[in-house]
Amino acid sequence: MLNDAKRNMYLSYPLKPNQVFDNITLDRKSTYVFPFAKTEIILVADVIELDSAHRMSMSEGYLDALARSATKSKENLSNYEPVFLLENGKAYGGRVVSIGKRKATVFYVNASGLIRVGNKRYSDIYKTQNLEELQRNVGVSIGEEWNFSLHRSVKSYFNLQGKVIGMNSSRLLLQTKTGAQSISIEEIAGKN
């Protein structure tokens, strides 16, 4: 019976390339009329679509419905908000799926195209939107190219050039020629 329900789900909505079923829910309904019994199994799933860069995209209606149930973290992150994560010099796009006290759970696609869900510290999550106040305080905006002078010690400065692709309350995420890099906002001595 379960296999029939699964087959019906696949036949009723054939997946396109870069689409996957997610959040699959199984409902079972039984009706009894003595001496007969009828059982139905219903499978329901969300369709997640990945673009060619293995980033997730969801319909606007679906995102609006999710945003209505959103909660905020102390870092001003919302559920289902698009974010970047930094792992091994690469920035991965993802979405926050739940908010905790010290960490958020993020749904993302890694370099191999594999879907991952992981608990990440807020300091490792970089916002990409709704950053007006932070951008004003730091003097840097998402999408801008900068050449930063980073203060490494009392007499030492390091220059780093890149495009700002994300930020959080303490760090900027830059896309440089050699990959993605995170720098401390306090470390910025000058920019031009």
Explain the overall architecture:
- This protein has a 5-stranded antiparallel β-sheet, with no helix packed on it.
- It has 3 domains: 49 residues, no CATH class; 79 residues, SH3 type barrels (Roll); 60 residues, SH3 type barrels, CATH 2.30.30.520.
- A hairpin with a 3-residue loop joins strand 5 and strand 6.
- The radius of gyration is 22 Å and the shape is elongated.
- It has 192 residues and is mainly beta.
| Helix percentage | 10-25%
Provide the low-confidence segments as ranges: none
- Largest sheet: number of strands, sense, barrel closure: 5 strands, antiparallel
**Percentage of residues in strands:** over 45%
Distance between the termini: 65 Å
**How much is the radius of gyration in Å?**
22 Å
CATH architecture of the largest domain: Roll
Number of domains: 3
**Taking strands numbered 1, 2, ... along the chain, how are they ordered across the largest sheet?**
7-6-5-4-8
Shape: elongated
Order of helices and strands: HEEEHEEEEEHEEEEE
The count of DSSP E runs of length 2 or more, i.e. the number of strands, is 13
Structural class: mainly beta
Number of helices: 3
The averaged pLDDT comes out at 79
CATH topology term of the largest domain: SH3 type barrels
Level-1 CATH class name of the largest domain? Mainly Beta
Quaternary organisation: single chain
Lay out the secondary structure.
Elements: H1 2-12, E1 19-33, E2 36-50, E3 56-57, H2 60-68, E4 82-87, E5 90-99, E6 103-109, E7 115-121, E8 125-127, H3 132-138, E9 145-151, E10 157-167, E11 171-176, E12 179-184, E13 188-191
Antiparallel strand pairs: 1-2, 2-3, 4-5, 4-8, 5-6, 6-7, 9-10, 9-13, 10-11, 11-12
